[in-house]
Amino acid sequence: MTHEQLIAACTQWFWNTFPEERRMLYAVNNNVSAGLSKHQQIIEGNKNKAKGVVAGVLDLCYLLPNKCCYLDAKVGNDRLSDDQLDFIGKLEDRNHLWCVFKSLEEFKEIIYRLQNTYMI
């Protein structure tokens, strides 16, 4: 499963499982398309930067009552980047949450745990 497929599977499961929570989980589109040439990637990256897209923001944001949780999908040997670690440090400084998941099942466990802990 690719990174994009994992995120799609997770967001679709969430949308269908928790209709009352729709729009409280959303994707952060900060990945430059891998299908572009190097020159096109640079152009798209510069456009995104001008629009406020920043490196290191995790893939998904889940808005809970009085707290945000950012979630990041990792596939294979993928690891958190230095920019992501910097972003995570800032989340922690502001008392927000973050999680990494490698499968749909792991994502489901995280969502259920968050809901059991933070939903009023």
Descriptive overview:
By secondary structure, this protein is α+β, with helices and mostly antiparallel strands. It has four helices and four strands, in the order H-E-H-E-E-H-E-H. It has helices at residues 3-17, 38-50, 82-93, 104-118, and strands at residues 25-27, 60-64, 67-73, 97-101. The chain has a four-stranded mixed sheet with strand order 1-2-3-4, with helices on both faces. Helix 3 (82-93) links the parallel strand 3 (67-73) and strand 4 (97-101). It is globular, with a radius of gyration of 15 Å. The termini are far apart. The model has no long low-confidence stretch (mean pLDDT 91).
Query: Largest sheet, order of strands side by side?
Result: 1-2-3-4
Helix content: 40-55%
- Mean of all residue-level pLDDT scores: 91
Query: Could you tell me the radius of gyration in angstroms?
Result: 15 Å
State the separation between the terminal residues, measured CA to CA: 35 Å
**Spans where pLDDT lies below 50 across 5 or more residues:** none
Order of helices and strands: HEHEEHEH
Q: Biggest β-sheet, characterized? A: 4 strands, mixed
Number of helices: 4
